[in-house]
Specification:
single chain, 339 residues, alpha/beta, seven-stranded mixed beta sheet, two-stranded antiparallel sheet, 13 helices, 11 strands, 45% helix, 18% strand, globular
Length: 339
């Protein structure tokens, strides 16, 4: 399956990786391949499909440790050492943090070179690698970043089938989120089959939603903001506690659902929270300081002069982006056990 975001960015979803891996271009000479330790089983297939192009592999740390200025500095120096040129390519192989870093390096090296991403987690495949949001963390989640569309994203369902169950659970948060904001059939699939919902069904459905939304609003001036459902409070909890991103999104969705029930009259909140718990996702935050979480919420990128904006739900498939009050946020924090 092939999904387009504009004329120059495509997402390929299927079983197995294409050969050649990179989009056809006559002037490409080199690639720098960023990869995390957890993706080591996928790297040989990637390197094998790069053909005659000179490829240099650069290891980066797992998870959020990859999204630091220290890791960024290391990659920049390797790009300089190999002479990566303007017509060359950055390839990111790994989870969402690795593809975020790879995209940001591509966006900023020589003011922009090609990025090709091979996500190896469900979370990366349905969310982080798609849409051109790139960045690193600095005192808050993704506060240093750039919009830079990858020319190609390759989602290999065979790779996703091999994931350890905890990694699958974490990524399911982003798929289920997509169902809540735009495709009720995804919610139905998880209610019917739980974590055994077929990836051949739910992954393409989630990718279809995200690519359509991004194609409509690449720089998030309007509709794209709905993809942040669960992320405003979720990111704050993630940064305050260090829990995995998918777990934080699940917790953030629980908080947003409580606010949605009050503000929008959302029905079915309890059933949705039960769905998340049944999938093995957390619905209560780990112990953390309420003031610290509130401070991180204030740093959220969706905060503007009028205050904090959040994505709320009027109903499944009916998201609303609206400003929330301190009292609203308090309801959300109470719902996830942050006192």
């Amino acid at each position: 399956m092939r999904y387009l975001i504009g004329d120059d960015s495509e997402v390929l979803v299927g079983r197995g990786m294409p050969r050649p891996l990179l989009p056809p271009r006559g002037d490409r000479a080199k690639t720098v391949v960023l990869t995390q330790p957890g993706a080591h089983t996928v790297v040989p297939a990637v390197m094998d499909r790069l053909g005659e192009i000179e490829a240099v592999m650069v290891p980066v740390p797992d998870r959020e440790e990859a999204k630091t200025l220290k890791a960024l500095d290391t990659v920049y120096h390797r790009c300089a050492a190999v002479g990566l040129g303007r017509h060359d390519t950055i390839v990111g192989v790994g989870g969402g943090a690795t593809t975020d870093l790879a995209g940001f390096v591509a966006a900023t090296w020589l003011r922009g070179v090609e990025a090709v991403l091979v996500p190896t987690t469900v979370l990366g495949a349905v969310d982080a690698a798609i849409g051109g949001k790139t960045g690193v963390n600095l005192g808050g989640k993704n506060l240093v970043g750039a919009f830079w569309p990858p020319s190609r994203v390759i989602v290999d369902l065979d790779v996703l089938d091999t994931l350890p169950r905890p990694v699958l659970v974490e990524g399911t948060a982003e798929i289920y989120k997509t169902g809540l904001i735009a495709d009720p059939s995804i919610v139905s699939a998880y209610r019917r089959d739980g974590l055994d919902a077929p990836l051949d069904q739910v992954v393409p459905a989630a990718v279809a939603v995200k690519t359509a939304v991004v194609a409509e609003d690449f720089r998030e001036s309007g509709r794209r903001a709905i993809l942040n459902f669960g992320h405003t409070i979720g990111h704050a909890v993630e940064f305050a506690t260090g829990i995995p991103h998918g777990h934080a999104v699940s917790i953030g969705m629980v908080a947003a659902l409580a606010i949605s029930e009050k503000r929008m009259g959302l029905a079915g909140r309890t059933e949705i929270v039960s769905d998340l718990a049944t999938l093995g996702l957390p619905v209560v935050a780990p112990p953390c300081d309420r003031e610290e979480v509130s401070r991180y919420i204030g740093l959220d990128k969706k905060t503007d002069a009028a205050g904090t904006r959040m994505v709320l739900l009027a109903a499944i498939g009916a998201p609303v982006v609206d400003h929330v009050t301190g009292d609203d946020v308090a309801i959300g924090l109470d719902a996830i056990g942050i006192s």
